Amino acid sequence: MTVDRLPRHIAVIMDGNGRWAQSRGLPRIEGHRRGVATVRTVIESCSRLNLQQLTLYCFSSENWKRPQLEQKLLMQLLEQYLIEERAEIERQNLRFAVIGRRSALSDSVNREIDRTYECARDNTGMRLCLAINYGSRGEIADAVQRIARRVAAGEIDPASIDEATVEAHLDTAGMPDPDLVIRTAGEMRISNYLLWQISYAELWVTEKCWPDFGQEELFAALREFAQRHRRFGGLSN
Prior knowledge:
With about 240 residues, this protein is α/β, with parallel strands linked by helices. About 40% of the residues lie in helices and about 15% in strands. It contains eight helices and six strands, in the order βααβααβαβααββα. The chain has helices at about 15-20, 30-50, 70-85, 85-90, 105-120, 135-150, 165-170, 215-225, and strands at about 10-15, 55-60, 95-100, 125-135, 180-185, 200-205. It has a six-stranded parallel sheet with strand order 3-4-2-1-5-6, with helices on both faces. The radius of gyration is 18 Å and the shape is globular. It starts with 8 loop residues before the first strand and ends in a 10-residue tail after the last helix. The model has no long low-confidence stretch (mean pLDDT about 95).
């Protein structure tokens, strides 16, 4: 597997934490705690491969439908992760980003996000992007509102609006589109994740739940990606 055949940007849907725990007679939150260890493994592996970006679907806008106790525990786990992993982010020289509607998050979670941003401000390595309270339809709606406000202010001519205009107003503005989307736990759907950005991404699904996903599975996904022919709507030579 050569460097030129690696994806620049991998986006991951980390699914199956609760099912992993329940199949072992454990509370669902234990699956999420175990999933944090997988996050560490995947981040370090991708950083060593010098990928440009890794985006992790941490908490979707639809996850607020889960039981209130699970929501609370997930937010506590996220806050704990941001605090405990800050030194590791610095050690690995990781850039840091968050996409999603932060206004719905608690003050304490937002505070730790800001502190992590500050810690990683001068880093130059792989960008670690966390999707928190993120939903792609909401992101696109927010982008349309931003554009509409600029049109109303006379800053943008409606006739000039194109794909680049929309892209510049998304949460992911300035980031490369994902080349590879990995989903665990065997589910064959996108779940409102980066719908605009993954238009031409390659999809790779494993039956393994996220806590059981490791370097072996990651490398299997990368090997398969390297063998695919990406034509972007054109024809192979």
